[in-house]
């Protein structure tokens, strides 16, 4: 993936600059075998590429012993894309500006989701262009309802569902009207709310509990759709220790 390569080159540039400043040879070879295991829909509007880039920054900073602080890694993440800093932090955060001005939001418990994938991708630039055509006034920074923050703090899924909103959804539905039927099926089958994820075409459903989530996954499977259960919040990119392979 392009973002993974860009992230690796960004870390390598910093690493070589540090060697140069220290007076050591800059002919050091920075190598790594990067294997990306995708568990989110590709080109699905879920920031999967940004998460891959965040993981690459964290992994290579550790592997090459570059010694960047979390703040310095975050600065590189911002250069790579607006969604990359959040993938570094994880958890629940409020994003302003381009989405990279992040503030942690207290969340208790967890929320159950169902993600419904689409066989055909949806171009992010096309969705944004369609949004621009549909707008009748200039975009402004949206207010964050106190009820939304309280729902996150209390783990209140029904109240959170009321405040779920994606400004890109009308544009995505204009380009892919059939996604509306996916939302309708999910909401009529137990979901508290269904919305387009990012620029689409993945549709995400907030569920009241785990049993309802599993039931909806089965419902979509019976209708020939690929659906998976997910839980939030989750940690950001981090190093995990694994047992060495034997044999």
Name the strands of the widest sheet in spatial order. Answer: 4-5-3-6
Main sheet makeup: 4 strands, antiparallel
Helix content: 40-55%
Distance between the termini: 31 Å
Report the count of strand segments. Answer: 6
Tell me the number of helical segments per DSSP (H or I, 4 or more residues long).
10
Outline the structure in words.
With 247 residues, this protein is α+β, with helices and mostly antiparallel strands. The protein has helices spanning 2-22, 48-63, 70-80, 84-89, 124-134, 146-154, 157-162, 169-175, 179-187, 210-222, and strands at 93-96, 101-104, 111-116, 193-196, 203-207, 227-232. The strands form two sheets. A four-stranded antiparallel sheet has the order 4-5-3-6. Strands 1-2 form a two-stranded antiparallel sheet. Helix 1 packs parallel to helix 2 (48-63). The relative contact order is 0.15.
Write the layout of secondary structure elements.
Layout: H1 2-22, H2 48-63, H3 70-80, H4 84-89, E1 93-96, E2 101-104, E3 111-116, H5 124-134, H6 146-154, H7 157-162, H8 169-175, H9 179-187, E4 193-196, E5 203-207, H10 210-222, E6 227-232
Antiparallel strand pairs: 1-2, 3-5, 3-6, 4-5
Helix pairs in contact: 1-2, 2-3, 5-8
């Amino acid at each position: 993936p392009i973002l993974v390569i860009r992230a690796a080159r960004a870390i390598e540039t910093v690493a070589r600059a540090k060697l140069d400043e220290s007076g050591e040879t800059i002919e050091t070879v920075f190598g790594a075998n990067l294997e990306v295991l995708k568990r989110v829909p590709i080109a699905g509007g879920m920031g999967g590429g940004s998460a891959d880039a965040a993981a690459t920054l964290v992994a290579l900073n550790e592997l090459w012993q570059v010694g960047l602080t979390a703040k310095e890694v975050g600065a590189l993440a911002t250069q790579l894309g607006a969604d990359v800093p959040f993938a570094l932090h994880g958890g629940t955060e409020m994003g302003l500006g381009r989405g990279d001005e992040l503030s942690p939001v207290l969340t208790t418990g967890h929320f159950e989701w169902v993600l419904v994938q689409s066989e055909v991708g949806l171009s992010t630039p096309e969705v944004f262009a369609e949004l621009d055509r549909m707008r009748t006034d200039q975009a402004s920074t949206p207010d964050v309802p106190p009820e939304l923050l309280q729902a996150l703090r209390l783990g209140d899924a029904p109240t959170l569902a009321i405040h779920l909103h994606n400004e890109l959804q009308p544009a995505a539905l204009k380009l892919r009207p059939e996604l509306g039927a996916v939302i309708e099926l999910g909401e009529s089958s137990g979901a508290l709310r269904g919305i387009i994820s990012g620029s689409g075409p993945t549709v995400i459903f907030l569920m009241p509990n785990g049993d309802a989530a599993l039931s909806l996954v089965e419902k979509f499977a019976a209708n020939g759709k690929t659906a998976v259960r997910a839980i939030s919040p989750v940690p950001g990119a981090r190093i995990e220790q694994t047992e060495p392979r034997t044999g």
